[in-house]
Design goal:
Layout (H helix, E strand, L loop, with lengths): L11 E6 L2 E6 L4 H7 L17 E4 L2 E4 L10 E3 L13
Parallel strand pairs: 1-5
Antiparallel strand pairs: 1-2, 3-4, 3-5
The chain binds FE2/S2 (inorganic) cluster.
């Protein structure tokens, strides 16, 4: 049987990422759960300081590294920068 990330979870649940159902581990941060499920996320510090992992969870902007993954959550990822977009300063 092939190894999957879900085998290490003590609990799993479905969340919605940009409207798509994704099964994640619910025993860890949302950022860790998203990354383990193969969802690309920006990150740097992992302790809520850099704000690079900010997503919208049930309509509220939150750093994904500071939010627990909760079944049923509606997560909206920030739009990826497109080629030619300028970074705001
Ligand atoms: S990775 Fe820095 S705030 Fe989440």
């Amino acid at each position: 049987m092939p190894y999957t990330f879900l085998e290490k979870c003590s609990s799993t649940g479905d969340i919605f990422v940009n409207g798509e159902r994704v099964t994640v581990c619910t025993d860890r941060s949302l950022l860790a759960a998203l990354l383990a499920a193969g969802v690309e996320c920006d990150l740097f510090c992992g302790i809520g300081q850099c704000q690079r992992c900010v997503v919208r969870v049930d309509g509220v902007r939150r750093p994904a590294c500071m939010v627990r993954a909760t079944a049923g959550a509606d997560v909206i990822l920030p739009a990826a920068p497109r080629r030619g977009d300028r970074e705001s300063s």
